Amino acid sequence: MEIVSSIAHMALPVTGQSQIGVVRRAAKVTSELLGFSDEQAGKVAIVVTEAATNLAIHAKQGELLICPYSRLDGEPFIDVITIDRGPGIADISRSIDDGYSTAGTQGNGLGALRRLSSKFEIFSQPGAGTALLARISAKNGHRHPCAKLTAGFICIPVKGEQVSGDTVAIKTSPSGATIMVADGLGHGVSANEASREAGKIFLEESDPSPTRLLDCINLGLRATRGAAVAVASIDSDRRLIRYSGIGNIAGAIFQGEQSRSMISHNGIVGHQSPRVQEFTYEWPKSGLIVINSDGLVTNWRLNHYPGLMQKDPALIAAVLYRDFNRGRDDVAILVVNEAPDA
Predict the structure, then answer these.
(1) DSSP H helical segments within the chain, as ranges?
(2) Dihedral (CA of 284, 286, 289, 290) sign
(3) pTM of the predicted model as reported, rounded to 2 decimal places
(4) Which of 90, 134, 188, 220 shows the greatest Cβ crowding within 10 Å of its Cβ?
């Protein structure tokens, strides 16, 4: 079994050329923490520089997200994501070609990003902005942790905090995955300690049952300030999702234009936790799961973004963060869908 767990993600503003050095230095520190080779760390630096330059020239105002993934039984990797509400890209395929430019530059930026990345995707709506994903692994290749599912997330602290009070954790298996989002009460260091303890317990417990996992987390968080926690177990073979949630964590299943919310009960895991109840839902073909903390507003919709559901889960999470982040709390957004060749 391979395991994916989150470490600190960063959202850095890029409003001009002066921010490019800032984001490059942040990326360098992150790649060093993950143990990247000099060669791969150099790729990260180039990707971040090109992506930030693209933001500064074309979007005028945007954010660059540095999203490291630490795999306890595999190769770590970094997602470099840019988001903006700029003019958008009218012709994505043409914009990636070397030599094409609408801003008088050499036009090598997007082409270089694609060549240096193990995964490269763009989602853009003319007049509404662009989101770009470039993935770089610690070595020369990257294999996704689960053959049947793909997962991606962002976990960003509220402005002014160095750590997030939210934690995301993923455990994979041959038939699917078990996933968790925890939101420590409040924000800052104490909230981070609570949610990370929830993640630690989740990763150590071998039973995939959401009720069993929440019971264990509830016991383990009694010495902390507590958290809202949701756990889902996805069985791709049986086409089932088992879900348990306590507190202000939202979960939903999407298929095409249809969506279905998953039920969480009121309470605080570790303190005011009611009896844990598990609900079973159908895992639809070409389905998508989104679980998020309350750093995201409640009235967002995916059907306003034609084509977005077919993109990488990390890119979907970034678009939701861009457009529906409350801006006054930590935010975690976890997205899971089926691998294209599953």
Answers:
(1) 20-33, 38-54, 92-96, 109-116, 189-204, 210-220, 313-324
(2) negative
(3) 0.92
(4) 134
Instruction: Encode pLDDT of 255-293 as tens digits.
Output: 988 999 999 999 999 998 778 899 999 999 989 999 999
Q: Which two tokens stand for residue 157?
A: 């602290």
Task: Copy the structure tokens of residue 21.
Answer: 């050095």
CB atoms within 10 A of CB 299: 6
**3-class SS at 322?**
helix
Strands (E), the chain: 3-6, 10-14, 62-71, 77-84, 119-125, 129-137, 149-156, 166-173, 176-184, 227-235, 240-246, 250-255, 258-262, 279-282, 288-292, 331-338
Token pair of 268 as six digits: 């605080």
Domains assigned to the chain: 3-137 (3.30.565.10), 149-338 (3.60.40.10)
CA distance linking residue 73 with residue 31, whole number of Å: 18
